[in-house]
Design goal:
There is one protein chain. This protein is of the alpha/beta class and about 250 residues long. About 45% of the residues are buried. The chain is built from 9 helices and 8 strands. The chain is globular and about 50 Å long. Helix 5 (about 130-140) links the parallel strand 5 and strand 6.
Amino acid sequence: MSRLFDSHIHLFRIADPAACLARYNAFSLSISPDDWSHQLSLARIHAGSGLHVGLGLHPWQVHTVSENWQEHLSSLETHLHQISSLQVGEIGLDFDPRTPADPELQKQVFEQHLDLAHRYDRAVSVHVRKAYDEALDLMRNFPGLRIFLHGFGGGAQVAERYLDHLNCVIGVNGVVVRENARRYHAMVRAAGLTHLVLETDGPFVSLPGREQFTCVDIESVCAALARLLDVTPDEVALQTRDNAMRMLSHAE
């Protein structure tokens, strides 16, 4: 089977990232400025291995830097200016009541990330939960922005709205393995293979029924998607890899 592309993983949190990169290509995302130096080090060590990295501030972490988030975004801009291959993420909006950060602050931080990515022509990896309308409204202000929708759970109709208005792909994760995930399966079918990428969100998420994440989980996601769409795993591997690379390509 063709080499798989894991479009959302946190490799700096994995004990042996080299073992993963020996088998798969990856888009490694950060969740707070505390992670950024680890990400940049990972990129230097594994240059040329099919690794892509992003720096960003996850909505769950916004409250930890609420007093000086502008300084971190200024630092991010410096990195984007200096490193032409650097992407942006993980960023987004999460209006679940359990999310510590105030929604209005989340929106300010998210919009500034989007603005940087748009000005520097970089892809973004976006987390959205219970804020689908608000996130769409903000992202539509940046035409042409290349967007990975990570862990998307908005359902088929919301996915179709996003695909109609944004230049985006939807990350298919371990939920697709569940036989009873009918709503998720309907969303994946509605999007179609040309708008999908594969992801694990490792090491934070493991496959249903498994205690621990491994990089090999991406193969199970690929196989389940192939069964759902009635195509071969190799077709899934090739198309999702092409989709990911299309999003990650940028003007030098």
